[in-house]
Design a protein that fits this description.
The complex is a heterodimer of chains A (about 425) and B (about 170). Chain A is of the alpha/beta class. Chain A contains eleven helices and 26 strands. Chain A has a five-stranded parallel sheet with strand order 3-2-1-7-19. Chain A has a five-stranded parallel sheet with strand order 9-16-10-11-12. A five-stranded antiparallel sheet of chain A has the order 22-23-26-25-24, sandwiched between helices. In chain A, helix 5 links the parallel strand 10 and strand 11. The termini of chain A are far apart. Chain B is α+β, with helices and mostly antiparallel strands. Helices cover about 25% and strands about 20% of the residues of chain B. In chain B, a hairpin with a 6-residue loop joins strand 4 and strand 5. Classes of the chains: A alpha/beta (about 425), B alpha+beta (about 170).
Chain lengths: ~425, ~170
């Protein structure tokens, strides 16, 4: 049995390790598209901070990790597959025959349509190579324009701020992290950034990037739709990502936004599986396929694909969308249906002065989504409540009255503390103190 | 021999000595906000519930970590954060459905209960035996007794049946 895994991100690596747990003898080939050992894009901002070196981004630390599991790690870029002949084509090398194939090719940055996006000094922030290019130009005090304040943009923002860059952020949406949080939270983040000296332009488009010659280190100018022209030594593009599926045209593998899969993560082609950012698997909140391009989901997919490929049939029940973001010390998170449902009740705690926000969305007496700003303690309980679908019973009304009692509610419903009484339990949470 | 923290909320008086001991042992300061075990106060019911990591088999935190900074100790099965590898991305803090791995802003790393490398300060400090550190077979036996009592009483809600058991 030859298992071939195309893509060496978290999904691919986890799948290879899972297959090895289940099949001691099968041959496993793990193919990475980049020259480095498998690494985590999640760790790149910390490399930019200077907190870690490149090897600190590696998914697995031991140099002989893959050898010790008899996983052949090699380099190759996907060229196409022939699912009838069961062959994978890599650019510039012989076809690779497989018995089971996992496509875990991830995603790539979307390059916004504008003139000048190919100029020297305009870079993405996606790969280690991108990180090196950023490090060359992101000097202390250097004027830097960041295009995009979505999740990835906002993480990079933190790193550029830490490096002491003179930072301007341009976001086309009306608020920061528009696909992760609402106006209240996005507004808090923007205000926080401005108070730290970062210039934030939301609802603003970049019309063009121009070469201007040497202007005190700034060799570029970024023309905005609001008429301003911002000088820059470095322009970082973070305008979203799209699945890497171009090589599948004509392969018999059906692709929508991402590769379509069944609950066993099998594609429409026999013995071809897909996992991670390149595929559309079920979102547990909606029950519908969606691209949840986040690290924990990639690992979940990888593990399940590995089990199914090695013959342990295990259906995917759906992944929970969730994100956590540190914006120059202001930590925010969102889970599940963070927007809520029109007919559902919500609980809100807003403390603008102290940059604290908690919003809980209910359907019946279950929590279905949440957003938080400035709250980190036991934040995982939000996932616990959403993913288990615990019935909150009387705790729902208590949460609507005092959302900061979230932790008590979790303990009560998950561990069985009794419900009732006139005044309610009291826990001093950071939010409760700030609101007092 | 596998040992586990066994928590009996019925014996907890809410003195928070476990929190003080934990923060002193692990952070070198008496700061309950940095404790890895927390006592939740259900004032209405006069009930206190100490709460910490169960060292769960699924190890959500470990699976979510992008840089392999959380591993399972092969002997104790404790999930351990390696601070030298942790980059502080906080993905584990949202991935853990129990909310028992938390970000420490002063170190820029995450912290969780690691049973104090096999000698938990919280159980040593607990004056009432609400938190004990027991050999896991003993825990299993106690659990069996609870289930037997429940079955005998014919009630799934028999008193004591829901004492949470933190186990490996």
């Amino acid at each position: 049995m030859h298992y071939v895994i195309l893509g060496a991100g978290p999904a691919g690596v986890t799948a290879a390790e899972t297959i090895r747990q289940k099949d001691r003898n099968g041959r496993i080939t793990l193919i990475g598209g980049e020259p480095e050992p498998p690494y985590s894009r999640m760790a790149i901002p910390y490399l930019l901070h200077g907190d870690i070196e490149e090897r600190g981004t590696y998914l697995r630390q031991k140099p002989d990790h893959y050898d010790s599991l008899c996983i052949e790690y090699r380099h190759g870029r996907a060229g196409g597959i022939d699912s009838r002949r069961k062959e994978l084509y890599l650019s510039g090398s012989d076809p690779v025959a497989y018995d089971k194939l996992l496509i875990a090719t991830g995603a790539s940055p979307v390059i916004p349509k504008m003139s000048g996006s190919n100029l020297d000094g305009v870079v993405n922030c996606w790969t280690l190579a991108d990180a090196r290019a950023i490090l060359k130009r992101a000097d202390k005090g250097a004027p830097v324009v960041l295009v995009g304040a979505g999740f990835i943009g906002s993480i990079v923002l933190e790193a550029l701020y830490q490096r002491g860059c003179d930072l301007t952020v341009v976001e086309i949406a009306p608020r920061m992290v528009a696909r992760m949080m609402d106006d209240t939270a996005g507004g808090m983040l923007a205000r926080w950034c401005r108070e730290k000296g970062v210039k934030v332009h939301t609802g603003t488009k970049v019309n063009a990037i121009r070469q201007t010659g040497s202007n005190g280190g700034a060799t570029l100018a970024v023309d905005l739709s609001n008429g301003q022209a911002i000088p820059a030594q470095l322009v970082v593009l973070a305008a979203g990502v799209k699945s890497n599926t171009g090589f599948l045209v004509g392969s018999g593998v059906k692709v929508n936004w991402g590769i379509q899969v069944n609950p066993f993560l099998e594609t429409s082609a026999p013995d071809v599986f897909a996992a991670g950012d390149c595929c559309e698997a079920v979102d547990i909140s909606t029950g519908k396929p969606d691209m949840l391009a986040i690290q924990p989901v990639a690992v979940e997919h990888g593990r399940l694909a590995g089990l199914n490929m090695a013959g342990t049939k295990t259906p995917h029940r759906g992944s929970l969308n969730m994100n956590v973001l540190d914006t120059m010390g202001l930590i925010s998170s969102s889970f599940g249906l963070w927007q809520g449902k029109p007919e559902g009740q919500t609980a809100k705690l807003i403390d603008e002065d102290n940059f604290k926000y908690l919003k809980l969305n209910f359907e019946g007496d279950r929590l279905i989504g949440a957003q938080s700003v400035g709250l980190t303690d036991h934040v995982g309980m939000l996932r616990g409540l959403i993913q288990t679908g615990f019935r909150l019973g009387g705790w729902k009304d208590k949460l609507i009255a005092s959302p900061e009692r979230l932790r008590e509610a979790y303990i009560a419903v998950a561990q069985g503390a009794p419900i009732g009484g006139p005044t309610g339990p009291h826990v001093n949470t950071p939010i409760a103190k700030a609101a007092a | 021999m596998l040992k586990a923290l066994v928590i009996d909320p019925g014996k907890c008086t809410g003195c928070k000595q476990c929190e003080m001991a934990c923060s002193y042992e692990n952070e070198g300061e008496f700061n309950v906000a940095k404790s890895r075990i927390r006592v939740f106060d259900f004032h209405e019911q006069g009930k206190m519930v100490p709460y910490t990591c169960t060292q769960c088999a699924e190890a959500w935190c470990q699976q979510a970590c992008p840089v392999n900074a959380i591993t399972t100790d092969p002997l104790s099965l404790v999930k351990v954060v390696h601070e030298n590898l942790c980059v502080g991305c906080k993905v584990c803090t949202i991935a853990c459905p129990f909310g028992t791995i938390n970000y420490n802003a002063s170190t820029g790393k995450v912290t969780k209960c690691d049973l104090c490398q096999g000698n938990p300060a919280c159980s040593d400090a607990c004056p009432t035996g609400a938190i004990t550190f027991q050999d896991i077979e003993q825990t299993g036996f106690d659990k069996m007794k609870v289930w037997a009592a429940q079955a005998a009483a014919g009630s799934p809600d028999a008193p004591g049946a829901k004492a949470p058991v933190a186990k490996h």
